[in-house]
Design the sequence.
């Protein structure tokens, strides 16, 4: 069991659907992350939130829209996705370190398939 | 741009064998982290190394941080099928952000 909880575990959606991925942590971490991971590849950073503010957007297409409602929750809203967006979406959290590189705690991910 | 190069990228061995995974860079890192990711799960932190020359042990796993803090290695003794997974090294980027740079990973399969 991880301390970062992601829902749903699996999601199948059509290219015209709108869905949301959810992530929750109660470790008091104030940095939260979204990653995209393809099979047998490392995670690719999408977004970073620090103190509930978006601090990094790695040039992610606008069909992915992150939201951080409070310090424990992180959402990723999906709309008009493409088949190449099929991947494992990982959420992570960490303490704020100002660049010292705090270890990140990952959830088990949402396996997303776009039809 | 900071890069972390891992080698080998794939390894398939028999139970009981030893192995070493390398994580190299031309850049200095203030620390490096090692994660293991098993199929269907997220990466799990194994260790953080901070001091140049540091050696840390976690049961059959030995981690070393290079003296110049540009490289790290992971040695597994007497590998077991439960060690199967994707091993990732990662380090903080320069500039004060919370971003980590990841190596491409080493996919290990330990056959019984």
Sequence:
């Amino acid at each position: 069991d991880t301390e970062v909880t992601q829902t749903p575990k699996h999601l199948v959606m059509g290219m015209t659907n709108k869905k949301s991925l959810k992530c929750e942590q109660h470790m008091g971490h104030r940095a939260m992350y979204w990653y995209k991971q393809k099979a047998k590849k490392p995670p690719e950073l999408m977004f970073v939130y620090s103190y509930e503010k978006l601090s990094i957007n790695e040039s992610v297409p606008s069909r992915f829209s992150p939201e951080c409602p409070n310090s424990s929750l992180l959402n990723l809203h999906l709309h008009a996705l493409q088949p190449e967006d099929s991947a494992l979406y990982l959420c992570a959290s960490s303490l704020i370190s100002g660049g010292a590189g705090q270890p990140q705690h990952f959830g088990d991910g949402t396996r997303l398939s776009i039809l | 741009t900071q890069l972390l190069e891992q080698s080998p990228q794939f390894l398939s061995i028999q139970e009981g064998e030893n192995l070493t995974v390398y994580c190299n860079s031309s850049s200095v890192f203030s620390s490096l982290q090692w994660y293991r990711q098993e199929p269907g799960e997220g990466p799990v932190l194994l260790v953080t190394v901070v001091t140049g020359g540091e050696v840390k042990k976690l049961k059959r796993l030995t981690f070393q941080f290079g003296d110049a803090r540009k490289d790290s290695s992971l040695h597994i003794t007497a590998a077991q099928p439960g060690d199967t997974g994707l091993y990732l090294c990662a380090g903080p980027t320069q500039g004060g952000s919370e971003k980590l740079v990841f190596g491409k990973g080493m996919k290990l399969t330990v056959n019984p």
Q: What stands out?
A: The first strand of chain B starts at residue 5 and ends at 7.
